[in-house]
User: What shape does this take?
Amino acid sequence: MSQISGSPFALQDPDDLENNQSGNPHLNDVLAARLHRRHVIKGGIGALAVAGFGPAVLAGCGGGDDEPALVVRQAAKALGFSGMSKSLADSVQVPAGYTATVIYATGDSIDPTVPAYLGNGLETNYARRAGDHHDGLVYFGLNAVGTARDDAGTERALLAINHENITGTAQFLHPTGETNLTVTAARPESEVIKEIEAHGVSVIEIQKAAGKFALNKSSAFNRRITARTEMTISGPVRGSDFVKTKFSPNGLISRGTLNNCGSGLTPWGTYVTAEENWAGYFIRDAGDDTKRTQRENTQLLRNGLRPASAGFAHRRWASVVPADVASTDFERWNCSVKGATPTDDFRNEHNTFGYIVEIDPYDANSRPKKRTAMGRRANEGATCSVPRAGEPLAFYIGCDSRGEYVYKFVTKAAWDVADRQRGMAAGDKYLDEGTIYAAKFNADGTGTWVKVDLSNPAVAAGVPVSTLNPSGYTFTDLADVCVNTRLAAGAAGATRMDRPEWTAVNPFNGEIYITMTENPDRGAISTNSGNNIPNPDVDAANPRYWLDSKGVSSQGPAAATQRGNVHGHLVRIREDADTAAAVGFKWDIFLFGAQAAADAGLDDVYYQKQVNLSGLTALNDLSKPDGCWFSRATGILWIETDDNTFTDQTNCMLLACIPGRQGDGGPIDVSNAASGSPDASVRAAGVDKTVRTYAGRKMTDAIFKRFLVGPTGSEITGVTESPDGKVLFVDIQHPGENTGRAGAIKSTVALSPTALSGPFESNWPGNGGGVPAYGPGGATARPRSATLMITRDDGGLIGI
Assistant: This one.
């Protein structure tokens, strides 16, 4: 999710480049209780109808006699907290009447036999410690004695937490930073093992004491799933030639999950974690393309895997000379052709990443499964539709790269509420067979889900011959489509979007929200991207480019000429007939990211009319919406940011919003000034470009406002809550990630490789910024990613 460039600790992420070769109510009074369905019907229908949500809420109750139900009494018209001002402090800022507390941070031990975090880089065994870059997370309830699943449990629970990356913060994992990161000598095995294990997922038990949750270090549920953990390959790709390697000659298993970004919850109580920017972990030797077929090179280049280049997060893991000469744990990160056959090397290792991975948090001995039927891409979460008995389920997925697509996976099996307690066996039923679709956004505010399989004639015809694909590309079977989903979606004619990231489904009406984080290449039509791909022009679903500027910040010097869609937007979809398996939909742009006012020296009259299209103010302006998630207790839509554009004015943030309904606004015409185009030929011609789009209602401070601002250098990532809506959990990712970057105002020179002593961009959470000081180090602590617990001081519901 985090995309840094220009750092001595991070190279360029292939998914931050253009790899795409195609041309193409908030609720005020909520009762959360265990109710029989007939009780909901008897007492709740009138209120539901008045609230405007109809049968979708009843469907969401699931139909079981012992299932939790949410009964909406009245739709609220305002949020119940004072909006937060923007902040550049190295501190977590939350509204008056709320308290934020760290409960789990990078390096924390999850095992009584593993020593506590030291804060000096000498910690070992990250297979039993919190990983880095906390991201998506989900709450899984436990019964009062902590022995079994209880979806309504509020005293004990499991948290499943993604650990996306180590970019910008790997230096803090080691006593003096990374050894041999930028030279040809082999990297130390112990350092690389720590870095590999700092990726993946944590499953931890939390338990209340004196009304507050804390980690139960002795829990048998505590588990780390890392980039070394064995996984089962499941679905159409299982056993195919695409995934046969030296480690698994039969293509049935793989090792590890990494770059886990967004996450989701299945109706049967398992965790799904998304492998996002996996391509950057691999290298290809110079000349590897000459050893490959044209088909293989087309596949590799579509995902940004070029010969003689290293990805943004590649840590030279393949350089390790292991103590055990039989180990292949490190050579697998070089996916070049080395041997006579695919099972002699790891040329296919990259094909074992990029999937949705299912994990059973309630079974610490279970093996995760890579659900290949859902497709392979830079996944951002997998959010399930509102389940309806007898109908298929849909999982909505973004592909996090500029110019990529929005997807859904529709299960072949129809939902049966009897499966809600079947765990991974239900996953086998629903996630191993189904249909991948990609979204085509029409200019009139309608859309089509185009099939991404060989039953679609456009996919069967393949990718046409072009200068970028001199031999074109023809798909051989379903496994091919599931491995090369991006190529297939392009062939199907899906719409290229502005870096689609998280998806969220409104549990009360089934509408889908997708964050479009940004695209500075939007409109650069006469040039190709860093991966030599044509850049897209503005269109109805991605209608803006403009000129923006940025002052000096902890990230680096001022930038006078940011252009394109630099603040992002959120798209909202309503499926035809409100059914998950629909092939048509209506859409609008729910929210346009923007500053409240144009930068100094720019035309604010133009800016308010053509850029700040949602009418944002100083209490809710934002840049680069990244994560989004709905509260099932209150109906609040929570929006998180991952920003490097607005950070001269504020750190990243979490905002709360009353969502409204698709179509609550109307058509608008956006006039894009030529000066804002990233295309030099457009600027030279001086011709403005007008695009008609469909906007949601204007925002106000009553229905949309800032709830939290994070510490310096951080991104606000995952969010979840206890089922009673009284505890919000929020992840703070990579504070201090710009430490040592050239031009960063808090560290003007790179840190010495022999003395990692600061100054650091951030010292949170050890410094106690907005939270009780957590861990060693105090005011000079090494920064750490962390999970926050946020409560209201009066014990009430969060946000109302």
